């Protein structure tokens, strides 16, 4: 378990979810969708983020998501750390699009630099230990609040945040029950972390 190849989202309407993601973000083989009838209410305990180069790119991606049917949770605004906004996809997944830049340096594009999976966990220290024991290396760590892992050439980055803090950042209540409606795909064997997030073995096509 040293990298993430893809994220699989579970949806009750897979065709609609696939249409949304094709229109909104064009994530290619980083994102998969499969059918699930597992119950899920409220906050699912994770967010996905797209990091971009400039505010105009964030606006372009957020705009395409809203046009495809997403709901705005936090309109794009400037902050101390940069610029960004949060939307919720029709399947219920929460997406943040953000940049550390505060000024535009070129025409708007829908390109993004990275995809970040942020897991909301009950105990950051315990979850950090779980992942370190399974081969991940810590890239950044801020006390008991936040951990980011080094995932090398992986197309998706992994980070941990306290669940309540993550919900607040997303603009939703922290309560939620039922399935996370997500599976994390990588080259290592299957496992389940302390907060119930599941990892599955994947076989990805070579990137050109």
UniProtKB/TrEMBL annotation:
<feature type="compositionally biased region" description="Polar residues">
    <location>
        <begin position="199"/>
        <end position="208"/>
    </location>
</feature>
<protein>
    <submittedName>
        <fullName>Glyoxalase</fullName>
    </submittedName>
</protein>
<feature type="region of interest" description="Disordered">
    <location>
        <begin position="177"/>
        <end position="208"/>
    </location>
</feature>
<dbReference type="InterPro" id="IPR029068">
    <property type="entry name" value="Glyas_Bleomycin-R_OHBP_Dase"/>
</dbReference>
